[in-house]
Design a protein that fits this description.
Elements: H1 11-18, H2 22-30, H3 49-63, H4 68-77, H5 82-120, H6 130-137
């Protein structure tokens, strides 16, 4: 507990509470996403509820597809600028949509190449394989 009577955790317990590894916490600290607390009694760093909430925010934002750079932008905005947060989310959504379109093209191309292989039957060497030949042409 800290001087306010609120619970505090060591880095190991903080990481466990957030479902991440200790090295993840340290990495976020190096990237300035998570503050490094001062050393308290016994030279042990203690983390508070706010640190856990911030760590969970980072995790959830990553799961939503935000990069660490974008998460840093979101954290810098705080809770007061909803419009700016929305703009960052819309930008990320557009990037995701472009990536999905690209993956659909890859899926279509691979399906066609696999079908060409199936129609060609068993080939003795990769050089005879329609998929191999098509990739080599590109």
């Amino acid at each position: 507990m800290n001087t306010d009577g609120n619970p505090t955790w060591t880095i190991g317990r903080l990481a466990a509470a957030a479902g991440v590894h200790v090295e993840t916490v340290r990495y976020y600290q190096r990237r300035s996403l998570l503050p490094i607390p001062s050393r308290g009694y016994g030279s042990i760093r203690r983390y508070c509820q706010e640190d856990l909430e911030r760590l969970n925010f980072i995790r959830h934002a990553q799961q939503a597809g935000f990069s660490l750079h974008e998460i840093a932008e979101l954290l810098a905005l705080g809770e007061k600028r909803c419009h700016e947060i929305q703009m960052i989310a819309e930008r990320r959504l557009k990037e995701v949509s472009v990536r999905i379109e690209s993956l659909h093209r890859v899926e279509h191309q691979l399906s066609g190449l696999i079908d060409a292989c199936k129609r060609g039957g068993e080939m003795d060497t990769p050089i005879d394989c329609p998929l191999y030949l098509r990739i080599r042409e590109d």
